[in-house]
Structures are given as C-alpha cells and as structure tokens.
Amino acid sequence: MIGRIVEVADDQRHLLVERGFLVVQDTAQHKKLGQVPLDDIAAVIANAHGLSYTNNVLVALAERCAPFVLCAANHNAVGMVMSIDGNFQQAKRFDAQIAASQPLIKRLWAEIVKSKLQQQAAALEATGAPSIPLSALVRKVRSGDPDNIEAQGARRYWGLLFGEDFRRDQQAGGLNGLLNYGYTVLRATTARAVVSAGLHPTIGLHHSNAGNAMRLVDDLMEPFRPMIDLKVWQLHRQGEHEVTSDTKRVLVRAMYDDMQTNAGATPVMVCTQKLATSLAQVFLGEREKLDLPFMGLPLSLAAAWQDD
Hints:
By secondary structure, the chain is of the alpha/beta class. It has eleven helices and ten strands. Strands 1-5-7-8 form a four-stranded mixed sheet. The protein has a four-stranded mixed sheet with strand order 4-3-2-6. Strands 9-10 form a two-stranded antiparallel ribbon.
C-alpha cells in the first residue's frame, strides 16, 4: 500500500491519537485543525520548533512501521523513532543479515552504485545535460567499489546538473536546503521499507559512520536520490530556490512518481519496499540479485520535466 507522508511544519501544533486517527490541534486557539487515518500514514515528518505530541502518537506509528522523523533547522533528519518489530521473520532476517559474507556485501554495494550512476545519467538526460560522463562510469564499478566510482560520479554529476559553481553542502540553504528536505522525505520512506522488510537499519552494506544508526537506509536510498535531484532542478528552473510550503509538497510528491522496474512503471515508495524486501531475500539465499529500478525514467515523466 502507498501511504501518506504527513509533515507538521507550523509552530503551536499538538499531535494526538483519537479513534484511529492522527489529530492535529492548534495549541494557541485550542481547536482541531485536521486528522489523518493512522493506517494511511507512511511517515510523519516533524519540521516545526513548537511541536508537541503524546506518547500514544509514537506508539501508534511504531505499531504501523511508520517512522516519526525529527528535522533540524537545515531540514535534515537528525532523529527517527521507528518500530523494533516490523516483520514476522525479523529475527531470522537479522541473523541472515549479520551472517552475510563480505564478498556478498561488496557485490550488493556494486549493484547499488551502478544503479545510482544509471539513474543519475537518466536524470541528466531528462534535463538535456550530457549523460555519457555518468553512464560511462557504470562499467568501471567493481565489487565493493574500491575505486570510489560513486564519488567520481558525484563530482561530475552536480556540475552538469546545476552548473560548475554549485557545491553540495548540507549546511547551506537554497538548492542545498531543497535537496536536504527531499532527502529527508526519501530517507523516511526508505527507513519504513527497511523495517517492514525485517532488516536492521544500522547494519549497512557500505556506509560505516559509527554514529549513524541508519547506515542500511542510507545505502538503499542511493539509487532514488536522482528523483529528488530532478524535482529540485525543476523547482530551480521555475524560479523556486528556497524551502517553502509549496516546494515541500512538490518534493513529497516525488515519492509517488514512477520509476521503471521489471513490473513496469512503479512509484518510488513501492520501489524502496521492493528493494528492501529483495535484499532480505538475498541474505536468506532466496534470490541472487536486488530488485533495483531500471535505467531511465518513464518517457512521459522525462518529457514533462523538459517541457516545464
């Protein structure tokens, strides 16, 4: 099921649970502003300073594997409340995840890097920028990516997408702020997929920062980042350069855009679920390869970006 991503971005808001609904109240005027069925929620993004909530909210979301994401002023996720019991095979899958051999882990990471480079090339093609510098790197990726082709691709990619003067900086505003927010939405979506698949989000394939509890999430979200990048490129082209209520809605909708898969055009949110589930199956020896999106975007979607 494709759930709804709920963001609370205004101050003086209080969240509570009432008869199966997440209810939003205005604390200043003491009135109810709206409600969303808990079973429809994929994630809640807390992006406001004056926000309060009951413990029942966190419990109800965790029971549904819907992460509660805490954002900093730069719109990056700095915390996430998640379920510790997301799948009936969780213990079995944790064991398989921990026991995975290094050759297998390195092979899987190479698959992810190749997919990311392919999607970056497709994103550049959709914007009319040269895509060969990225697509040519795919065949150079070896098991474990010891040559760090992923980073080489990133250095070429950002300049081609946003111009040579652009620098990716998580602490900056403008386009970087838009990217931060989009990646926060994507990270929450991927985290839900990882937990639902019965995998531990901290046991990663490549990311190894000791302070990062979401290492596997950050691994698996890599092939989907270009979908966010394209949305930011589109906003930039339309004269939108800052994080606003309108630009947030556009970035959230990226999770419902289609990507090409072996099952046809499939929403990004579903693609993250398929990828996480396939990884669990690989760990268990039930399949050989990850269920990654194909190279390229649906032609209608690419054309729409170029026409805007």
